[in-house]
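INFO batch 0412 | record 1 of 1 | parsing
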Amino acid sequence: MFTVIGTLVGTYFGIKTSGDARETAERLSHASVEASARATDTAVRTVIGAQGGTQGQALMLVVSNLHNAWNLHQQEMVLGLLTDNAEVKIGPLPSGELRGLKDKDKVGEFVQTYMPGSQVDSRNYRIEGNGVTWESTVTWQLEQANDEVKRMGVEPMENKVVVDGTAVATFEGTRIRALSFTLSPATLSRMRKPNQPTEGGGGPGGGGDRTAETQ
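INFO prediction complete | emitting tokens
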């Protein structure tokens, strides 16, 4: 069930033949994606072994596929794992605000903006009822980070933009209905406060008024 590399990585690199897929494959480090997929697969197997259950297996498979689809930079794969009315919340930002996104169209815009050039590494998975909780580190190489990533106001480390936090996915059946990402204290300490200007503009607090789209 959990041969993630064979299903996602293998499918993508072995079957996709469009120009877009080839271009994406050239930009990605195949070895890096495979290494991340193996790490995710190992973590998933560990959780299943410890917490077990058919429902838990199904939820963990979705989370595993979510991570690997993100690292393959496949927006359609990511969105296919969500319900049509999915909600995503990120924060709180230094201003205290939560950034909220409702419905798949808004979530798709977010994914399209922040997925390019990123790599997600996750750990410490816990199955809790109809949800899964885990810790994640999202990394962008500074030279690959777009303006929106830079406007988050996270101080780079070793030419990388690094964001840590705790993710919680709540399920409706076998699709994700709600996904939240709570920024870690370490990440918040490296973010510009609301009254500090961000490089290249973008408003205070790394995003200005866009931090509360569904408030």
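INFO post-check: The radius of gyration is 17 Å.
INFO record closed
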